Amino acid sequence: MAGMVPYSDYEKALRRVWPFAAIDDFFAPLAVSDADAFNMDVEDAGDKYVITAELPGVKKDQVDIELNEGRLSISVDKKESDEQKDKNYLQKETSEWQATRGVYLKDAANEGISAKMDGGVLTVDVPKQEEKKASVTKVTIE
């Protein structure tokens, strides 16, 4: 009974076993999840939202920004240039990667959105639309 591992801790226990830990350590630099791909901050600046994303080494033509029914999505598709593929690397720690991060902005306006890229930081300004008062209609039962 002392060697039993709760099911929820089973994965952690397997990682401590030599072959699995070595394989995880070997492939860890290659793993990029959406959550770890780039940092994104969302600020409520009164009459607008200011979204900043840290995208070092990414060019503005590799970024796609879209607002769809209040959901702002920032997608990055970083690809290696052709000139770098001709080089003979002994070790290469930069790679091609794709990531998408999004945030829901309930009162975002569809017009007047601006974006700029400066020093590896993307800044998106999304103006707020004036909140519409909920119109309530009283229905009479016949």
Automatic annotation (TrEMBL):
Signal peptide: none annotated. Transmembrane segments: none annotated. It comes from the Bacteria. InterPro entries: A-crystallin/Hsp20_dom, HSP20-like_chaperone, Small_HSP. Residues 31-142 form the SHSP domain. PANTHER family: HEAT-SHOCK PROTEIN 20 FAMILY MEMBER. Belongs to the small heat shock protein (HSP20) family. This is HSP20 family protein. It comes from Parafannyhessea umbonata.
